[in-house]
Amino acid sequence: MRKQVFKFLSKINKLILPSYSKQRLDLAKATKLQMAIIGWKWFVTKNALD
After folding, report:
1. Would you say 20 and 34 are in contact if contact means Cβ atoms under 8 Å apart?
2. Treating both helix axes as pointing N-terminal to C-terminal, what angle do 2-16 and 32-49 enclose, rounded to 10 degrees?
3. Is there a smaller number of Cβ atoms within 10 Å at the N or the C end of the chain?
4. Mind listing the pLDDT tens digit of every residue in the chain (50 residues)?
């Protein structure tokens, strides 16, 4: 059940949130909001794969 929720969140993230790897964002120059989005996407992806 938990894994299904994170897989669903992952699909929503892909549709709504920006892809910073495609934009070639430098993490040293990222704003706090960008870092929060990166952290959220990492958290969801990690839990979807577990």
Report:
1. yes
2. 140
3. N
4. 999 999 999 999 999 999 998 899 999 999 999 999 999 999 999 999 98
